[in-house]
Amino acid sequence: MTIIFAHRGSSGTHPENTFAAYKEAVRVGAEGIELDVQLTKDDELVVIHDHTVGRTTNGTGFVRDYTLEELQRLDAGAWFHERFQGERIPVLKEVFTWMQSNDLILNIELKNVTVDLPCLEELVLNEIESFNLADRIIISTFDHYSLKKINELNPKIECAILYLEKLYEPWNYAANIGAKGLHTHSPKTDRVMIKEAERRGFPVRVYTVNHEERIKELLEDGCSAIFTDYPEKALAVRKMVDK
């Protein structure tokens, strides 16, 4: 069965990377959540996509220039709709605590490809280990050196290469750095690659897929997972395809 990951939570219907979006993903039945992690000024692990706070909060400036206490004073929901006023930027350990009450799979994207975040890998792994969540976590990033480091530090954690363009035999490239999954951009993903990668034991998880027809195609192609902003819609399509 193709797993449905809620991309930044149910981000098409709720403010991305907030507990409102994560709880909605659970409510509609998504099996997984994808979120983004980076560091504050005081090296706390927070969940936000952009390196600046202006798009998704009422603040301005770079995430890295805020302490955790300062970040958590910002409103991360009202930009989406007034009914979400008061939503905060989550701390990763808060998400991990919440995961004790469900059986979600969590994809953590490390936001370190354009900004240097020293020790991000070690800090994330320490939190995963302290909450005993290694078997429910996938780590991805566009920084493949970072994935290599993760694999060397803890090969039990599944890593997946995140990439935009087509790669020749991406399973070989992934294996070279110790990654076990392929997180592929939907426009650059085709049936032949999916079938061959899955045959070789490399799950293909496609992002970010919001249109019903494309969701249906990928389900029929047999990819392991889909990342979508609209998990309820994707689940409805999957139910229809599975009939």
UniProtKB/TrEMBL annotation:
Organism (species): Virgibacillus indicus
Highest rank taxon of the organism: Bacteria
InterPro entries: GP_PDE_dom, PLC-like_Pdiesterase_TIM-brl
GO biological-process terms attached to the record: lipid metabolic process
Designated name of the protein: GP-PDE domain-containing protein
Residue ranges annotated for the GP-PDE domain, each copy included: 2-238
Entry GO MF terms: phosphoric diester hydrolase activity
SUPFAM superfamilies linked: PLC-like phosphodiesterases (SSF51695)
